[in-house]
């Protein structure tokens, strides 16, 4: 990087840091003006579009204003600084330019984030766990993770997600948080390893964000995770909130808990506890004892999409629905398009729910993996459907998923992982057919809203 670019990036960082700190006291009008300045920074048009979208939400008095102010007001100064520096500036503003420059140099556009499983060991044994059949005797070596994160930063990736297994069983993860202080880490965790000492270490570092797994309220969570687990999670949330630490919650939607996850009671509880982001994943019959009966019905999947629309318009929280938000990501994000998953054995999967691989990160660089035959084939087919409410090659376009898994992967990454593509194939096809009318109606509504907004803007 030349001296001019370094000076330019430094100037942008100082400007963005100052502007974002002003969020705490800025008026709504001033917040809108800040977005005009932020729009100048990223080179990629898709990021400029997102900033313009945020500006429109601010103008409408959207709860997003409260979210921004919660980040600034409710978290401790170090943690606030790290979120602003590492996520907003390094990842979103300066990072998008670095990723674009990397593409110009190499011909490969990097993903936005990496998902890594440091271990598949876990202190729980939840039924239906997507990771339940992975080998547990191999942890991903610390030096391999360090090397991958370093390579990611060179590409402009400053968002690393850890899952597992239970990541906090790896006590050496804290050395990665400390060494890579310019990265924003999120750790999907069952929270059983989080105590006051762990919270103190997280507060002292500032760049690691727990994402606590819940199944709903006490009845649903304890049924799947064990008696007393829900209460423990609430205690951990209280400790994190009192320490001024940002945290999120991760849920797995099944046929059994959909109504609870979509209830006002559940979301109100998360807001009260200090949660600022909810990740919703759908149960997919992969991993431990796959059961079609656990999958949310097409009606329930559509219900959650509608509920998230409601929550986004009314609650001071962020909401991400891994499948139903395909229209926000322009389809499937797997195969290195926007993310990938590295297992504890080093196998590089297209997605955490796609349990097949071609390459092992212990043997190849991140760039080589991104240019593997498997990943290039996946990206060449994306989006798998023009209807972006049907983004997934596993459950929405399963014929595509079967072809890719059976003909382009080197291996399945744990015993019986192929069941989704063999024994369950007919049932998955039936599910996709049943969900299609709901997705088609949602896509038609989405397209119509875009047309109407365009006309309103032009008029």
Features:
single chain, alpha/beta, nine-stranded mixed sheet, two-stranded antiparallel ribbon, 18 helices
Q: What does this protein look like?
A:
The longest helix is centred in the C-terminal third of the chain and has 34 residues, at 425-458. The mean pLDDT is 90. β6, α13 and β7 form a beta-alpha-beta unit. A nine-stranded mixed beta sheet has the order 7-6-5-4-3-2-1-8-9. It has a two-stranded antiparallel sheet with strand order 10-11. The N and C termini lie far apart (44 Å). The protein has 459 residues and is of the alpha/beta class. The chain contains 18 helices and eleven strands. It has helices spanning 3-21, 28-39, 45-59, 64-74, 77-106, 142-155, 173-179, 196-205, 218-225, 229-242, 258-261, 264-273, 298-314, 326-329, 366-370, 373-381, 398-408, 425-458; strands at 114-116, 159-162, 184-189, 208-214, 248-253, 277-282, 318-321, 341-342, 348-349, 356-357, 411-412. It is globular.
What is Rg?
21 Å
Number of strands: 11
Tally of alpha and pi helices:
18
SSE sequence, one letter per element: HHHHHEHEHEHEHHEHHEHEHEEEHHHEH
Helix content: 40-55%
**Overall SS class:** alpha/beta
Oligomer category: single chain
